[in-house]
Amino acid sequence: MYLKITSVVKLDFEIISNETINSTNLYAYDLGKLGKRNKIVVSEIQTHGKGRLDRSWFSNKGGLYFSVLMDIKDVGKIEKINFLGSISVVETLKEFSDKNFEIKWPNDVLFENKKICGILTELNVCNGYLVLGIGININNEIDSEIKKIGTSLKEIENLKFNVDLILKKFIEVFVKNLKLDDELILGKYKKYSKTMFKDVNLTILEKTVTGKVVDISYNGIHIDTGNYVEVFNVGDCIHLR
Ligand code: BTN
What we know:
Residues 14-182 form the BPL/LPL catalytic domain. This is Biotin--acetyl-CoA-carboxylase ligase. The protein has helices spanning 24-33, 80-96, 153-157, 163-178, 182-192, and strands at residues 14-21, 39-46, 64-71, 101-104, 108-111, 114-124, 129-136, 199-204, 207-217, 220-224, 229-232, 236-239. The protein contains 5 helices and 12 strands. With 241 residues, it is α+β, with helices and mostly antiparallel strands. The chain is globular, with a radius of gyration of 18 Å. Helix 2 packs across helix 5. The strands form 2 sheets. A 7-stranded mixed beta sheet has the order 1-2-3-7-6-5-4, sandwiched between helices. The chain has a 5-stranded antiparallel beta sheet with strand order 11-10-9-8-12, with no helix packed on it. It starts with 13 loop residues before the first strand and ends with a strand. It has 2 domains: 2-192, BirA Bifunctional Protein, domain 2 (2-Layer Sandwich); 199-239.
């Protein structure tokens, strides 16, 4: 007789708080190299906040900037981590606001087409750890240059929020979601996705692909270009309509 043992993820995270550092991702990545795991590095301000695709992330006071340092084996399928991060942000924001938050592939969280959260995951496969970096605009002022495309919880609700409480809620939601099986996580992701069934332009390096998103899976975004369906796991996605 065989007993099927399902591994139960039991994680307690230590929170490391800072007033100002360069980037919570950089800090957490260095801790990872030292063998540390299950840490959440937070900072009120980041002087060199990192964004996806080598961009920077404007990190002024009032926002929530943090990085989760974990062992890859505690996540299982590595492709899950971005989905876990973004669904957990949506579900956390829903605890503080009744507005409709949606995910733009791969992991931007939007309110009415304006970005409220960005996620940057970095892996160190040799040492077996990952850093899930999350920036959420909470009470911070949105830089005038990105006002058209960015928003904050304060702007949406016309209220100031307790950033520490939002982080606490995120951890609770994230730990619950970590225990879900792969299909349930994907199901939640698709439910919150704004990109599913949209016409998009996807830019990867110099190449742009245009088509309709027919599915999203752990392999990436499935785009029907008219001739065939192509699957991409990286790129800059623009919703056309
Ligand atoms: C993006 O949308 O381009 C991703 C932005 C990720 C920003 C967060 S803020 C906390 C963590 N530390 C960083 O330097 N970047 C991530």
